[in-house]
Write a structure and sequence with these properties.
Layout: H1 2-23, E1 26-32, H2 37-50, E2 54-60, H3 63-75, E3 82-86, H4 90-95, H5 103-109, E4 134-139, E5 142-146, H6 147-152, H7 162-176, E6 179-181, H8 193-203, E7 207-211, E8 217-220, H9 223-238, H10 255-263, E9 266-271, H11 273-286, E10 294-297, E11 308-314, H12 321-331, H13 334-339, E12 345-346, H14 349-354, H15 362-370, H16 376-379, H17 384-399, H18 405-419
Parallel strand pairs: 1-2, 1-3, 6-9
Antiparallel strand pairs: 3-11, 4-11, 4-12, 5-9, 5-10, 7-8
Helix pairs in contact: 8-9, 9-18, 10-11, 17-18
Length: 420
């Protein structure tokens, strides 16, 4: 009898060991590129509690390095299991063989309210229908401003034209000493000036790449019109209403911009909503007794920005595709947006309608209604990162006086013409 008891104890111990090993057998890595690491870690902790057999390592990388780093890793069989990518990268990454085909996973497990409920689903899939990512968030840039500084400068309504915005920036500088529109003008790989130039061009009805009814692509802008946009932003630097230090700032959510808005050194920026969340949070922490001075509104003229966003892809080299997809399903569910990823709109029509909105963020909803898809930029023969780089580097050379705006405009025009 004693021998039998000992055998049962040993067998029970072995079974518990096997069970514990099974529960901890899957280790995923998730590379997240936005701010809010603490909040995202909390979201992943909750996922682990709900899925005791899966552990998730949270990796961090700057947006400027994210694309090339992942492509290098995927090419040699490495990299995170789940990757956070800009929606305009998905098609080229899929073409490069870096992303897992999710069609069967979606068919078997479903996703959200269905594939048709996702915004920017066209950017997550190839022309043959292969789905290489799940749209996670959509956003756009809105004009964020300090009401108190504009009032001090005698500006009662936010400008509705590009010329008016320029004049307001001059007026703010003269009457308050603060910077009007602080424009990050650096020329790095993920530069912000690419967006601001396109906003200017689009609002005038121009476009670097457009598509005809027969499906062919063409340039819908002249070199002179390209140069007009370059000259507009250069004028802010030339007149000293955009600090020269902004030539060293590339990212639309750089700490310099956040801190400048909190302190009141800057009065206007163009940025995604999650950056406004950070600004308001920092202001409240520093000045708990002061009311919120921030507001948001649409861009000037016809106010055409883009529906931007992030998507979640699975590394083609993953050994745990099912678990990786389970993580993506969790991250695209409503509680993550409300509890851990504030300031980002879900890339799902149903969830957008459900989420509440803060008054100071009203401009983002208004701007999203007016925003356009990247459309031909994304589906055309020239990868967006390539044009992004051409425009950013060209703008940088204009801003520092290395080349004239028309020289750079002709270079951009000819580069696009050659590829089309």
């Amino acid at each position: 009898m004693k021998t039998l008891v000992n055998v049962l104890i040993i067998v029970t111990g072995l079974l518990l060991t096997i069970k514990n090993a099974a529960l901890a057998e899957i280790e995923l890595s998730f590379r997240f590129n936005d701010a809010g690491q603490k909040e995202m870690r909390a979201a992943l902790d909750k996922f682990e509690q709900m899925n005791p057999g899966i552990k998730v390592e949270l990796q961090r990388i700057a947006w400027g390095s994210a694309r090339e780093q992942f492509l290098r890793e995927a090419a040699v069989g490495e990299g995170p299991d789940v990757v956070h990518i800009a929606q305009v990268w998905t098609r080229s990454m899929g073409d490069a063989g870096a992303l897992y085909d999710m069609n069967e996973l979606i068919e078997e497990h479903g996703i959200g309210e269905g594939w048709g409920d996702f915004i920017s689903a066209d950017l997550a899939s190839q022309d043959d229908g292969t789905i290489h990512a799940i749209p996670w968030t959509v956003d756009t840039f809105a004009m964020v401003y300090r009401k108190d500084i504009l009032e001090k400068a005698g500006i009662t309504e936010f400008p509705t034209t590009w010329e008016g915005l320029h004049e307001a920036s001059v007026q703010i500088k003269e009457k308050t000493g603060a910077v009007g529109w602080a424009i990050p003008s650096g020329s790095g790989p993920t530069n912000s000036i690419w967006f601001f130039l396109n906003f200017y061009w689009w609002s005038n009805g121009w476009s670097l790449v457009d598509r005809k009814a027969d499906g062919s692509y063409y340039i819908n802008i002249t070199p002179e019109q390209i140069a007009e946009g370059l000259d507009y932003y250069k004028s802010y630097l030339d007149k000293g209403i955009n600090p020269q230090s902004m030539l060293n700032v590339t990212n639309w959510g750089a700490q310099e911009l956040i801190e400048g808005m909190v302190r009141g050194d800057y009065s206007i920026i163009s940025t995604p909503e999650n950056v406004l969340v950070q600004i308001e949070s920092a202001f409240k922490e520093r000045y708990p007794d002061k009311s919120n001075p921030f507001a948001s509104t649409i861009h000037p003229k016809s106010s055409v920005t883009f529906v931007g966003g992030r998507q979640l892809g699975i590394n083609v080299n993953t050994e745990h595709a099912e678990a990786a997809f389970k993580l993506i399903k969790y991250l695209t569910d409503e509680p993550v947006y409300t509890d851990h990823y504030a300031g980002m709109w879900p890339a799902q029509k149903t969830l957008i309608k459900q989420l509440p909105q803060v008054a100071s963020h009203k401009g983002y909803k208004d701007q999203l209604i007016l925003a356009r898809s990247w459309g031909p930029y994304s589906t055309g023969p020239i990868p967006i990162p390539t044009m992004w780089n051409w425009v950013g580097r060209g703008a940088g050379s204009v801003f520092i006086g290395e080349k004239t705006s028309i020289e750079v405009a002709n270079e951009i025009y000819e580069n696009i013409k050659k590829e089309l």
